[in-house]
Amino acid sequence: MSALQSSVANLVKLKSPANYHEWKFNVENLLTINGYGDYMDNKLNPDNYNQKEDEKAVAILLSTINYELAQSIVDCVNVKEEGEVKCSKTYNLFAKISSTVNQETKSYKLKLVQEFDDFSANGSVISTINKMKNIKRQHTVLKIKMDDIFYCYKLFKSLDNSIQQQ
Q: Are both 80 and 22 inside the same structural domain?
């Protein structure tokens, strides 16, 4: 197994908006280190465009996202013209992935806010606390701003309701 294959195999796949920023950072570094950064950034001089190299970069990108996401964007990898500049397949694919994830992020944020609103104690105190920690972590990753006092209030209220029901 080559160093590139090993790096791709060890890269956390893009699964949802929750891990998009980590994935983006890692895949940008992976492509840049392996000489494909210009295809991703569309900073390639048209005279230096190499279709075979571009297709390798596309293959790397596709191998770092989950199957469902790949299915929804597979039609975007054609080379297109933007004015005088030719956009690489890698650039188009990366832009489509970002666009798709950004759309999903809006829906995902709404889902997380709803999950917070519906939060209630289930199971042990420890599992309830861990569930709230997970919600807070996801909010932080997606830059949903909420004061800690709201998390504490919701947690204590749900635990209090759980105790009263017993």
A: yes
Mean pLDDT, to the nearest integer, of 26-37? 87
* 153 part of a folded domain: yes
83 and 128 assigned to the same domain: no
The answer to whether residues 17 and 91 belong to one domain is yes
- Direct distance between the N- and C-terminal alpha carbons of the chain, in angstroms, rounded to an integer: 57
Give the C-alpha separation, 133 to 114, whole Å: 16
Burial class (CB in 10 A: 0-12, 13-18, 19+), 47: exposed
Catalogue the long-range contacts made by 22-28 (C-beta closer than 8 Å, 24 or more residues apart).
23/64, 23/65, 24/98, 26/64, 27/60, 27/61, 27/64
Tokens of 38: 């210009």
Model pLDDT for residues 49-99, shown as the tens digit of each residue:
888 888 888 888 888 888 777 776 665 544 454 444 456 778 888 888 887
CA dist 24 and 141 (Å) reads 13
The count of residues in the chain is 166
According to DSSP H, which parts of the chain are helical? 3-10, 20-33, 37-41, 51-62, 67-73, 89-117, 125-141, 148-165
Supply the pLDDT for residue 66. Answer: 82
